[in-house]
Amino acid sequence: MAEITDIEKQSLVEGAKKNDRKAQNKLFGHYSGLVMSVSRRYGKDLSAAEDVFQECFMQIFRSLVASKNEIDNLDGWIYRIAINTNITHYYKNKEVAFEELSDQQLDDHHRKIIDRISGEELMNMINHLPDGYRVIFNLYFIDGYKHTEIAKMLGISESTSRSQLSRAKEQLKKELESQGIDRYEAN
To answer: If we measure between CA atoms, which residue out of 68, 77, 64 comes closest to residue 12?
Structure first.
């Protein structure tokens, strides 16, 4: 979809606030890829991602109507709503099970292996992680949240966030090793 200017975005926001279907459709069309990519990262399968995708846009339009102020960074605002809606969905539906586990650290050798694989390969492996591991891995590494923030979002302790991240990395390491990637080679 063609890029739209900040002025056009503001005009679409104003129209969407007034329930103008054309403005809402254009916003939906412009941001559907972004919102679906977030939903796919957090959803355990396509069907679950599509359900939350719809919830995201309902929340976006409700929040637009309720907003009395101008939205300075519409892209970031929508991205944040998509993340929060996905987290709320999984937390509310108890699809994410968090365990209190001891914090296991990966050594630098294995951390470097995970850092070297392609984004597409990593996303495929992440999608196969258990729900709790996947959510925390995404929040920490992809969305850049700190363990303190993750703990507050999910209603868990910071140590649980750390241990779930550690377990996710350990599972990713095992998956890499099963594919024959068992050592790091610098370029």
So the answer is: 64
Dump pLDDT digits (tens) for 72-100. Answer: 889 999 999 999 898 888 766 654 444 43
Of the chain, the end-to-end C-alpha distance in Å amounts to 37
What is the Cα–Cα distance from 44 to 97, expressed in whole angstroms? 13
Whether the predicted model's global pTM rises above the 0.70 cut: no
pLDDT band at 157 (very low <50, low <70, confident <90, very high): very high
DSSP class of residue 106? P
Identify whether the C-beta of residue 90 lies closer than 8 Å to the C-beta of residue 135.
Answer: yes
Query: What whole-number distance in Å separates Cα of residue 95 and Cα of residue 86?
Result: 11
Position 3 scores a pLDDT of 80
Contacts of 151 (CB under 8 A, 6+ apart): 157, 158, 160, 161
Residue 76 CA from chain centroid, whole number: 13
